[in-house]
Amino acid sequence: MKSTCLSALIASLLLTTAAIADDKIVKLGELDDQSSLYADSGGPGSVLAVNMAVEDSGLRDKGWTIDVISADHLNKPDVAVGIARQWFDVDKVDAIIGVQNSGTALAVAGVVKEKNGVLLVSGAASSDLTGKACTPNTIHWAYDTYALANGTGKAIVKAGRRHLVLHYR
């Protein structure tokens, strides 16, 4: 199911990006933690997922050139911004995918808006991505911290509880 959803999102992203590119040539940058804290939930697996989604889209069979590159942002916003600028200015990336760390996602979102690119955030959870830092260039395809807290709070109140008690062992 997740693969199907990702394929649909990538296909939509490619079609949107191609409308901008107007030449059926699209370059995607998968920017994630490839070597540290978030590497297991993103990293090399996310690069593979993007490549699989591109294949599943069937657009290469229709004459599209779709290149996927990747980089490790090291969970550092300044490194992520540097990579994003390099990708847009030199490597001519059309869209950035991934960015599972909220600090790096927020930083990259600013660059993407400035460069009028596209950002598909698939793991960062900061509610600022859908709130005060929301831009027309960013698709936040994941949960956010507001939704987690709001949903949990409503469920607790609906169950008749007034307090959440956590037990640690």
Q: Which descriptors apply to this entry?
A:
169 residues, Rossmann fold, 5-stranded parallel β-sheet
Overall body shape: elongated
Euclidean distance between termini CA atoms: 35 Å
User: Into how many domains do the coordinates divide?
Assistant: 1
Strand share of the residues?
15-25%
Structural class: alpha/beta
The succession of helices and strands, N to C, reads HEHEHEHEEH
- Poorly predicted regions are none
Our Rg estimate from Cα atoms comes to 18 Å
CATH architecture: 3-Layer(aba) Sandwich
The CATH H-level homologous superfamily: Response regulator
Which sequence of strands runs across the widest sheet? 2-1-3-4-5
Instruction: Assign the CATH topology.
Output: Rossmann fold
Helix and strand topology:
Elements: H1 2-21, E1 25-32, H2 43-57, E2 65-72, H3 77-89, E3 95-98, H4 102-115, E4 118-121, E5 138-140, H5 145-158
Helix pairs in contact: 1-2, 3-4
Task: Give a brief description.
The chain is an alpha/beta fold and about 170 residues long. It is about 45% helix and about 15% strand.
Structure description:
The chain contains five helices and five strands; from the N terminus they run αβαβαβαββα. It is α/β, with parallel strands linked by helices and 169 residues long. The protein has a five-stranded parallel sheet, with helices on both faces. The relative contact order is 0.14.
